[in-house]
Records
---
Amino acid sequence: MDWELYLPRSWTGDPDRCRGARIPEDVRLATKGELARCLVLGALASALPIAWVTAHSTYGQELRSGGSSRWC
């Protein structure tokens, strides 16, 4: 349904590298859990019939706890 590009700190902390890859300047580091949360919130806000969500145990813990919504 959707996707988010995960950029590790080695990328987000290197402006020249990001410019070379044409990554917009406003893109900042977001954890995989934060990205997953945004994807789930986007899906829930859509008209799609959603019955369940699966996640890797690492990201699932952040989803269950509410995590940060600063990226959504």
---
Amino acid sequence: MIVTPKELLLAIADGESETLEFKISFQKEVIESIVAFSNARGGKVFVGVDDLGKIVGVELTKESLQNWINQIKQNSSPSIIPNINIIEIYKKNVVIIEVKEYPIKPVSYKNRYLLRRKNSNHVMSMEEIANEYLKTKNSSWDYYIDTSQDFNDISLEKIERFIKRVEKTFNKSFADTPMKILQKYSLVQDDKITFGAYLLFVKDFCLISGIQAGRFKTSTDIIDSISLNCDILNEVDELIIFIRKHLMVEYIITGSPQREERYDYPLDAIREIVLNMIVHRDYRDSSDSVIKIFDDRIEFFNPGNLYDGLTIEQLISNNYESKTRNKLISLMFKECGLIEKYGSGISRIKKFCIEHNIVAPKFEEIQKGFRVTLYKEKLAEGINEGINEGINEGIKSLFSFIKNNPSQRISHISDNLNIPSKTLERWIKQLRDEKKIIYKGSKKTGGYFCL
């Protein structure tokens, strides 16, 4: 809570943000911002400050603040009652209206649902509204009953195979019947199957799990392809088999009697990406997931943007709290040993690429979906003769990371590559001296780019 003029001036100096808005007077836009903050992480509105941060003050009567509170309460649903504080500065009144993240979401203003993103308010999509409602109930879409399918649409054999995988993972045996086990896992509720159960155990053709994969010689010339609409556990295996078939392999002579196989991409990274695609996909979107294998890269596209407002910048820097769109599917994949730890997938993918000596993968939101691109290019190929031969693999991975993830600052790179900031500063200086990278932007918001 801001309580002194000094604290107020410091906050104004930082400017508008994801949690701060300036308004010259109390109007409907103030209520809209309060609602948007409530649907996000909370925030403050300074009334009596213009867009440039100039203190203009606001005229108040004895009834002003109570009237403001009443208007906010009457025009928000569920009703919001904010904290209000007045600070006098330069003989002018600035009113601070503060609201915390609301526990029951989403909150609306005159039947409009708003969400705070960066320094502005956005109207929430139907998907965002549904997600906020499910999060409030500590649930997710896959826990809900599938009213279009029933037990005739799922396979008992696949259920029994799943149970054996869980037993193997935990080295135990279930004494219950398959139906009881499904009920305990909430895969069956009120004697009806959930969306999660349908995706895991569908008998034949699955309406919502479509994945297309192809080997492309050019952007339009497909030389091999596969189309899958089956249960998601089988999709993992089928996709990895198909991708592996189209990878180049080299044989490395070691001291052992057998030669070591080495693929041009790390198989562990591919498996991790495929698992993430299937577990985190938005199955409410009618589009298929798509995998494209080119001569120099593999693209993995999933319908559905990053979940819960997660940004690419947060993803790359590992500066986020892991949340999942499909809680039930995630749990089931963990129970049968396919997922080791929640939220570690992106870090593991990047780690596998560095260990395999290929350039860093690229993560991007595109066409209302999320795409990961693996590149075949070796780390050493990203740096020319200007950087001498004695530079270790660390600086090569740094250059590769900046190339594929421009605009990052040292703190973010350090978190991402798990390299101390002091070490990065030395490597960055060398790359800058060789005119390989440049810093663009201000000290607070800028980052490094390849030349």
---
Amino acid sequence: MRKRATFAVLTAVVALAGSTAAGAHADETVGDIQINSLAVNGGKNVVVDTADKTITVSVTATDPSGIWDADFYLWRGPDGADPYYSPDGYILPNEDTTPADCVASSGTTSTCSKTFTFEPDWWLTNADAGTWKVGVQVWANDDSWTERWAYTTTRLQRHSKLTVNASPEPVVKGKTLTVTGKLSRANWDTLDYRGYATQPVKLQFRKAGTTTYTTVKTVNTSSTGTLTTTVTAAEDGYWRWNFAGTTTTPAATVAGDFVDVQ
């Protein structure tokens, strides 16, 4: 393929720079090719539970001669790092050695896509959760090309779950109501769910007959991810927990538990 030969040469040139190679390579464009947009997983974070998950990465680009191929890679490293020489992590698409699926919207513009599969039962580990840079390469029919090391970023996250239970049910007005629950998230090392420790989670209440939840207090999860607190029962309504999420774990909430106050 033309693109493989092109970038093999570029890599060899950088390698000849010796100790100055790392960081010497940079975003490059040859010709009039332009990247219009790039989408990872439809613009959503990549949330993986304990089973394999496949997502699509696509780029829309324009060149007077038309677009014929594209490639992508996810990588980690400090700002200024070189994804070819000093990445902390590197993920290639499923179609790494084959052309992208390119669909033309005009004689000059196409959208090209490839897929990535994240496999907890093979290579994906808890340490992989977090922010990844997204690199893209695009080639035009006249052999012009462009490469952007970090056109955008995406978050690879461990799927999260919440539970809730408010008791006793029913409860006498003015008496103590105990609300418990658990925040857990996918563990890619053990292929199950484990409690997410020391995380702030909001306890929220929705009065019966209304549609809006109000935050009552914030409670931190225990070392095993459990939640427990007490409130004074005042009126009929629904109690739930609401977790805002972190860079490694998506937000989570749970359907409210109705309590009849008598």
---
Amino acid sequence: MNFVDWTAKAVEARILEMADTLRISPSVRGPKMFGNAMPESVRRYDESYGVQPARYRENASAASLGRMEQVWNWINALPSEADRKLIYAWSWVKVRRGMTISAFAVENDLNDRTLRRQIDRICQRIADNLNRIMLVRLNNADCLLSENQPDIASQTVTSEICVTHWRASDAKPQIDPALAKSRVIKPRDIRARHSAQNRSLGVRSR
């Protein structure tokens, strides 16, 4: 596992993804959500086509929902309530249509540049908190047993028996002199042996 330091831009991208996932998630609309008690009219197959316009609904994936909850924990861990409200409202305005960022800044008694500096400061603070948490985890004694270095390859083995049985790069196969009969393959003898086995089993050869 290779740990990469969090940056303000990376945190900002995750916050915007959180707001966009929240935007496309289904919301509760009260009794209107369940419709009325009147059943839908049953139409003939030649009359039903094109009666209602085609609709497409974008759904959030399970991975994006998990990352959304993770970003909520990041933002809720901020000590300042004003920063939490500002980052939530800013991200919601960024992913929705309607209000512009300039109008949002004016509504909060800020200009565009001041709002940008505030967002960068909050994202950098979240990134610093994440880096500090990961730094403490990687300095733990238990992490010495984990593979947190790139391109790890074992150079030694724990068993000495395996070392003695390793073959050199220029090694060639050797034949045991005690097995001289097995050194040469004789097809005629093999066919004769197979024929004798077949006769013992009662199989007629053609």
